[in-house]
Amino acid sequence: MNAEYRIDELPILAKGDVVVIGAGPAGSSTAATAAAGGISVLMLDRKEHIGLPVQCAEYVPLSIAAEVPVPAACIAQRVEGFVTYIHWEQVAQTRAPGYVLHRDVFDRYLAERAVHSGAKLLTKAQAVAVADQGVVIKEQGKLSIVKANIVIGSEGPKSVAAQAMGCSLQTLAYAKQITVKLRKRLQWAQIYFSPSFPGGYAWLFPKNDLANVGVSLDLSLGGNAATALGEFQQYLMKEGVISEEVIRRTGGTIPIGGPQLKIQEKNLMLVGDAAGHTHPISGEGIFPAIVAGKIAGSLAVDSIRRGDIDILKQYPLQCLTRFGEFLKRGFERKGEYSINWGKTEFSVLVRKTWFAFPEYFES
Ligand SMILES: Cc1cc2nc3c(=O)[nH]c(=O)nc-3n(C[C@H](O)[C@H](O)[C@H](O)COP(=O)(O)OP(=O)(O)OC[C@H]3O[C@@H](n4cnc5c(N)ncnc54)[C@H](O)[C@@H]3O)c2cc1C
Fold first, then answer.
1. What is the 3-state secondary structure (H, E, C) of 10-31?
2. What does the alpha-carbon distance between residue 294 and residue 214 come to, in Å, rounded to a whole number?
3. Which residues lie across from 99 on neighbouring strands?
4. Which residue segments constitute the domains of the chain, with CATH numbers given?
C-alpha cells in the first residue's frame, strides 16, 4: 500500500479494455492499432501538448513509411545518408535515405490518428503507479484510478509500468542539442566520433535552412554533454557550416543498455523507450517504437477478443523477430565500445562500433 493513498479508495476515472501510458510514437502506434481492432482504448499523457518540447534529432529511415503513414506536413527534408568523421577527418559516406521530421507535427499526427481510430486521449494526466487494480493517475493534483484489462507502458525510459514489473533502471546516455542556422543547405547528415564524446558521438541533421546539432555521451566513461556540445558548435562555426545564432536548445536521455530483460508480464507490456527498444549506439528509437506498438496493439486486440491474457506472451518473441538482431548487435557493439574505451586505438574501436564500417557487421 502507498503511504499517500489507498488504491481501493480512489475514485474510478474510467474503465476499458486497454490503457496506454504515454502518447509518444510507441503509445500512439499501440493505441491506433488496438482501437482500430475495435476494443476500447484510453491513452494518457502527462503533457498538455503532445509532441512538445521536441527532444530529438528527428531522423527516421524512409522505411518507416511502410509501417505508418508519414504525411508531407511531418517531413522537413529528405537526407540521403550520413558522412562519418573520426578525429574530425571524413572517413566514410553511407547511403541511408531518410527523413528529417518535424517531430512535434509527427507525434501530434500519430496521436490524432489513434483518436480517429477510436482511442480516447487524456492529456495532463500522469501515471504515478501501476497496480493489479489499474493505473493510478494524477490530474491537477487529484488522484484517481483507471481500470483496464491490459496496461501498456509506453512512457519512456522512466516507466512506472516497468517499475511495477520489477525491471531494473535503464542505462541511459545523456544528450544535448541545439537547433542552429546552416550556412548552406545539406543533403547528408554528419556523424562525428572523437575522444571528446565519451561512449557516444556528435551529430548534425540538416533541416532545410536549419540543423539539429547535438551530442550524446555515456557519462559512465566521463565527459560533460554541455561542454562537449559547446566544443562541437565552435568547431562547426569555425568550419563555416553553421552560424552562431541558437534557435532552440533541448536534450534528453536515451536508453543504451539494450531491451529490458522482461517486456511483458501478466497483463502488462512495455513498448518503445520504456522497453529499451532503442539502438544502443545510434539512439534510433522511433522506428522500433512504432513497430513494437503495432505488435502490442494487435496482440491486445486478440487477447481481449478471445478472453485469453496468455496471448500477450507472444509479444517478446514477435519483437525479437522484427528488430531483435538490430538491437542485439547494437547492444554487443556498445558493450565493446565501453569496455575498450581508452584502451584500443580510437579509429579501430569506432570502426567496430558504427554501422558505416564492415567491421560492425563482422561476428
Ligand atoms: C536528443 C535526442 C535525440 C534523438 N534523436 C533521434 C532520432 O533522430 N531518431 C530516432 O529514431 N530516435 C531519436 N531519439 C530517440 C527517440 O526520441 C525515442 O526513442 C522515441 O521518442 C521513443 O518513443 P516513445 O514513444 O517510446 O517515448 P517518448 O517519445 O519519450 O514518449 C513518451 C510519452 O510518455 C509521456 N509520459 C512520460 N511519463 C509519463 C507518465 N508517468 N504518465 C503519463 N505520461 C507520461 C511523455 O510525456 C511522452 O509524451 C532521440 C532521443 C534524444 C533524447
1. CCEEEEEEEEEECCCHHHHHHH
2. 30
3. 60, 78
4. 7-339 (3.50.50.60)
| C-beta of residue 155 within 8 angstroms of C-beta of residue 274 | yes
- 240 alpha carbon – ligand 1 mean position (Å): 32
Residue with cell 545564432: 245
Give residue for cell 547535438: 214
117: left (phi over 0), alpha (psi -120 to 50) or beta: alpha
Residue 87: alpha-carbon gap to chain centroid? 28
Say if strands 268-270 and 189-193 run parallel, antiparallel, or are unpaired.
Answer: unpaired
How would residue 49 be classed by pLDDT, with cut points 50, 70 and 90? very high
* Cβ–Cβ under 8 Å, residues 240 and 124: no
d(CA 363, CA 360): 8
Of all residues in the chain, what percent carry a pLDDT higher than 70?
Answer: 99
Say which DSSP state 267 is in: T
Strand, helix or coil at 78? Answer: strand
Nearest to 274 by CA among 147, 130, 169: 169
What are the tens digits of pLDDT across the range 130-150? 998 899 999 999 999 999 999
Does 1 have pLDDT greater than 70?
A: no
The x, y and z cell numbers of residue 124, run together, are 495532463
Asked if pLDDT for residue 3 goes beyond 80, the answer is: no
Q: Using DSSP, state whether 236 is helix, strand or coil.
A: helix
Cβ neighbours around 233 below 10 Å, total: 19
pLDDT interval class at 236 (50, 70, 90): very high
155 lines ligand 1 (CB under 6 A): yes
Between the CA of 238 and the centroid of ligand 1 the distance, in Å, is 32
Q: Which atom of ligand 1 is nearest to the CA of 255?
A: 19
Residue bearing the CA closest to ligand 1, atom 50: 56
CA nearest to 113, candidates 19, 34, 198, 13: 34
Q: Is 201 helix (H, G, I), strand (E, B) or coil?
A: strand
